[in-house]
Amino acid sequence: MRGANRGHRVIISCALSAGLLAATSPAAEAAPASQFSPGAPGAGDPYFPDMGNGGYDVSHYDIRLAFTPGTGAINATTTVLATATQNLSSFDLDFQGPLTISRLSVNGQDAAFTRSGAQELVITPPYGLRKGSPFVVSVTYAGVPQKIDDPALGLSGWVATKDGAVALNQPIGAATYYPVNDTPDDKATYTQSITVPSGLTVLANGEPGPTTTQGGQTTFRWSMNRPMASELSMLAIGGYNVTRGVMAGGLPNITAIGKSIDTKPGQGKVFNQTTAQVIQWESSMYGPYPFDSAGGIIADVGVHYALETQSRPVYDQRTSDVDGDLLAHELGHQWFGDSLTPVHWSDIWLNEGFATYSEWLYQEKFNNIPVQQTFADTYAGEEDWSGQVADPGRDHIFDDLVYNRGAMTLQALRTKIGDRAFFAVLNLWPSTHRYGNVSTREFIQFVERLTHRDLGSFFRTWLYQPGKPAL
Ligand code: TRP
Ligand code: ZN
């Protein structure tokens, strides 16, 4: 928590906005009430204008949630620590669906709130929040969370399963079960305390804390102590067989497989060990693994995709076999997508191109299929050359174009600048922007500076112009 005098500052701004201390307080130079204004209801992503909010910066989420399997209901309190980046008279969090809020406080005092549109929770504290001051919002709510089923983006958010639930939040699911500044460029640390009937298991991002049991209920605790985008937060509740391993550097490696689908003898151990091996191999190319624990979860969710949730990806059993190259993809995302995250969804090729390229590298390293071969096959076989990789459109962020042409762009770049420079990019790009946010423009500049070359027309052709680039 930042600033022990949080409450004090707020009291001053309260008195000020009422004009009481104007003559005596040194804070009198601070803004009068008229200079406090509402934070923006969106963070400015052209694809998702309502997502995220303006006027503050979140540093931490504490999610305390109890889940009742019979009804699928949750009872939760989420506490958000943030700092105002403007003088705020009110601000929004993203929160959607049928959950009912029973109490909401700002700095410990009840605050007025309304819900507007699909996902805006508009909060008006009793007094303005001064620019630069930290504040804490606590929201208590209950109900049965509803997943998102978007025609173009598939299932996301809180997804009920046969024996629990799995929360997968890319790109727009987080707000289905916690109030959040749901934009990739407001990263924060997380603590999650999840209470379930004893016998069920809970997995989440990061490192486990103590598990406690009382009255037939068990509380699992997880913390992610590195900055995390909300789209990469995750929860898995249900019957799981958990394997605890240690990675080469000593970091915990915690993997789990849903009990109902854990049918192949030895699969848990193989999954755990392959995860560690792939991370070790990827670290040798991409630089040190960015988080304090690793792992993965194979679950029976039915979303038909795997997701690079931070430190611990989720692999939907129904996607395809969870084999080494899928692991290479989701674990490659830990560098490209998770530690380093695009500001705007239009730049998602910076995630998917590199993650797909990680699969190509895996095929070369472990299955003797040269990257150039995969490139040539993809180039010859790709049917869709119509879109733009960098800015594919809101409904196309998960199209093959983004994945395949993204990876082809990287292989074409490698051919153009040579192995030495290319592998320097693979290492320096994620380490320079560790835990940060990036754009395609920055990537292009980064490569140009590193190689001392003008690559404008190369990247224009591959990333911005529809049509099959000539080789
Ligand atoms: N980003 C995921 C990955 O490549 C895949 C994914 C997430 C996805 N949501 C999706 C694929 C929706 C298709 C549809 O690892
Ligand atoms: Zn991916």
Notes on the protein architecture:
By secondary structure, this protein is an alpha+beta fold. Among the domains are: 239-336, Orthogonal Bundle (Neutral Protease, domain 2), CATH 1.10.390; 341-464, Neutral Protease, domain 2. Helix content is 26%, strand content 31%. It is built from nine helices and 25 strands. Strands 2, 3, 5, 6, 9, 13, 15, 16 and 17 form a nine-stranded mixed β-sheet that branches. Strand 2 (56-68) and strand 3 (73-84) form a beta hairpin. It is globular, with a radius of gyration of 23 Å. Residues 153-154, 170, 305-308, 329-330, 352, 355, 398 line the site of tryptophan.
- By secondary-structure content and strand pairing, the structural class works out as alpha+beta
Question: Which strand-content bin applies to the residues?
Answer: 25-35%
Tell me the overall shape. globular
The main pleated sheet reads as:
9 strands, mixed
Mean of all residue-level pLDDT scores:
93
Helix content: 25-40%
The name of the CATH architecture of the domain at 341-464 is Orthogonal Bundle
What is the strand tally? 25
Could you name the ranges where pLDDT drops below 50 across 5 or more consecutive residues?
1-29
Radius of gyration computed on alpha carbons: 23 Å
Bound small-molecule species:
tryptophan, zinc ion
Q: CATH superfamily of the domain at 341-464, called what? A: Neutral Protease Domain 2
Query: Remind me, CATH topology of the domain at 341-464?
Result: Neutral Protease, domain 2
